[in-house]
Specification:
This protein is mainly α. The protein contains 14 helices and no strands.
Length: 291
């Protein structure tokens, strides 16, 4: 009993740990839900690219506000949404391949962010937290912003679920029904950008794509239905985030690394042992057929 209390309850005696736990739970739910779209639509590269495009907005907000974490969140939000809309407009009507537009905006925005940081030598060390995350520094204002942005993402995803499902899996039917496909695609990009912005708070720019991709990729071993995949992905993301926070606390390692490593371990376990889908099941099936 004492051991359980030491492992599970002792860290929660501190208010900063309580806020961090609430934050990773909120971020885990939102990233798990949106990650299902990312994986099923093959948008993993887009998720990683959008994460890097928030850097200039974050850097400008950090420098102009003197390091306010709420300003950083808002700056990243503006940069992420502008990048998502820019990618959507550049690829409108297939005038430019999506991966080309992503590559151009991703490289340009990230280079701009690095340029801004390089001119602010006094802040360079503080700005490294943007790259690896600083979830333990979340305050009440940050928590409200994360909850607000996450709530907006979930509400719009719920309201537009049928439309987003159609443009993702049956664009021909969506066109037949006269759905505004391009507008819905840009809306999905904006929702993804909002998710990335709050995810950066937890694991940083470098690892935020993993929060979108890895839980959803793991969930795909257990279900192919999108709404089931969203629920399973969100559960995996939340479990991994909480477990990662405890590992970070007791192991004295970066919380972002612990969270993503936990997600990776769960993915590898699912890859090997998922019922009917895992590698071990495939080996057993081949052995049975050759016997």
């Amino acid at each position: 009993m004492d051991l359980i209390q030491h492992i599970l309850l002792d860290p929660l005696q501190f208010s900063f740990m309580q806020r961090a736990m609430l934050a990773v739970i909120l971020i885990g739910v939102v990233s798990g839900v949106m990650g299902a779209f990312v994986v099923t639509r093959g948008m993993s590269f887009l998720g990683d690219a959008l994460a890097h495009t928030v850097l200039p907005g974050v850097a400008v907000a950090f420098l102009s506000s003197g390091g306010s974490s709420s300003a950083v969140l808002i700056g990243g939000l503006i940069a992420g949404v502008l990048s998502a809309v820019g990618i959507g407009l550049l690829t409108r009507g297939q005038r430019l391949a999506e991966d080309t537009a992503i590559g151009v905006i991703f490289a340009g925005a990230f280079a701009l962010g690095i340029g801004i940081i390089s001119q602010a030598q006094n802040y360079a060390a503080d700005l490294t937290h943007i790259l690896i995350g600083e979830i333990l520094a979340v305050n009440d204002e940050n928590l409200l912003l994360i909850a607000g942005i996450g709530g907006v993402v979930l509400i719009f995803t719920l309201l537009l679920y049928k439309e987003l499902l159609l443009i993702s899996f049956d664009p021909v039917l969506a066109q037949t029904l006269r759905l505004p496909g391009e507008t819905l695609r840009i809306a999905l990009l904006v929702l993804l950008a909002l998710t990335i912005v709050i995810g950066v708070q937890a694991v940083g720019i470098v690892l935020v794509a993993a929060m979108l991709v890895t839980p959803a990729a793991t969930a795909r071993f257990f279900t192919r239905r999108l709404h089931h995949m969203m629920a399973v992905s969100a559960a995996i993301a939340v479990f991994s985030s909480i477990t990662g926070m405890y590992i970070a606390w007791h192991g004295r390692i970066a919380a972002s690394a612990a969270i993503v490593l936990t997600m990776t371990v769960l993915f590898l376990l699912a890859y090997a042992f998922a019922p009917g889908q895992g590698y071990v099941w495939a080996l057993l099936g081949r052995s049975a057929r050759t016997a």
